[in-house]
User: Fold this.
Amino acid sequence: MQTEAEKTQISIDEMATFCRRKGFVYPGSEIYGSLSGIFDYGPLGVGLKNNIKQEWWKTHVQQREDIIGMDGAIISHQKIWEASGHLSGFSDVILECKKCKEKVRGDVFIEDQLNISTEGLKVKDIDAIIKKNKLKCLKCGGEFKDASDFNLMFPVHIGASKENNSIAYLRGETAQLIFANFKKVVENSRLKLPFGIAQIGKAFRNEIAPRNFLFRCREFEQMEIEYFVKPGDKKCPYIKEVLNHKLKVLSAEMQEKNQEEKEMTMKQALQKKIIKNEWHAYWLAQCNKWFINLGANPDNFRIRQHKRKELAHYSSDCWDLEYNFPFGYKELQGIADRSDYDLQQHIKHSGQDLSLFDEDTKQKIVPHVVAEPSLGVDRAFLVFMFDAYEYDKKRENIVLKLHPKLAPIKVAVFPLLKNKKSLVKKAREVYNLLKEDFASMYDEAGSIGKKYARQDEAGTFLGVTIDFDSLKKKDCTIRSRDTTKQIRVKIKDLKKVVEELISGEKLSKFGKYIN
Ligand code: GAP
Assistant:
């Protein structure tokens, strides 16, 4: 049977509804009315999310000699955030209505009302735009107070005391724990520059306007690498690996001149000095390749340089890997040059020596973070879901074409009929065999068509059916989610076949199509 899947464009709200219905993601604390910007992951969601994290770790830590991992605590000392500048500078501009006290995030409000870019606008810019355009509160029509900064860090009290010195913070980014543990991690791993330290974990931001489902939440997860080099080192020894990689590029200068993004190779971007640092070109391409290798659509990505006034307080240059979400191109992953800002701040505030000894110059140096690839797990989750989502007209159901390595369930096992004991017994045997090595499920409810449709929507990569022939021939059918094609395979060979199919082999390698 030929399938008629077509790329289906759905809105972020439709994606949220689909995720809730299928058990990928639920609104947080929903039975008590939900908490805005907080989400719980359901049975399929946790599977996909774990697979995303596992694949990221495998590519960026396990398979590299120059990157090592760590896992810092979520609750951290207030001095960490004083030193990093988050307590004074990590804020968004808030607008409060004089009449009804409604609070909105300044840049988002202006973007919605005037449809203009608000990247990097500060308090005074927001105030000026509100006044010039006579913008009022949407709820009651009242005037706004003067705009002000709103700090995004979540304070918590440690222990029974409510004194000021008992305040600690839920981390606003995982990165600071890498800086705070820098010296110990380097000494324990005997790392030599250039090297990276990676971490996956939760981060918390008291966003004024969480929105667009998982895109901007108050609790989310990050996968971050701090990549350290000797001060001034712009030569990346791995650059050859990515020179031919093509990306749509939008530099700060192109944005100032109102130019469109241009597709080019990393080699061209470096030669034309659009990207000035080899390390940036390398990491931007690497990060993009990671998505593409896991099935994301290359056409949906571009890289965009931050304009000067957009840069975070710690950053001297920053490029974002952006994805074309249903609400436009938005940041998926930031790749900032943080220089030695953080290590110097922690040296100053902690009084500890965080420098390294450079064997070449026989001098102490404070390494620079030349690139900080920082990716939100939840945003990556959205990317894979959007690029996998298709409505198949012939099947009349959604098919979630997740890459087999990401699919939460690799294989579902069905008896052809649930009221035939011999079929059920054999199907259970096969399921027990497969679940040792693969995320599998056993499903006997409904007709075979219903079972296939249910698994297509869950993104289950393969369907194994035990029919009457299976009992005689000691075999089963395997069905591909993406093509609906089926072959028959001996049960004794099943594990090996499933493993090879997940690794990218074609179904036709293992038998003749029977449909
Ligand atoms: N350590 C650098 C850092 O935290 P960032 O640009 O603020 O930089 C990095 O965040 C990534 O974390 C973003 O590109 C995005 O993928 C994710 N992220 C940031 N804020 C988020 C939020 N409120 N909800 C979901 N993901 C978020």
In short: DSSP finds 17 helices and 27 strands in the chain. The pocket of glycyl-adenosine-5'-phosphate is lined by residues 173, 175, 205, 207, 216-217, 220, 222, 224, 331-334, 372, 374-376, 378-379 (CB under 6 Å).
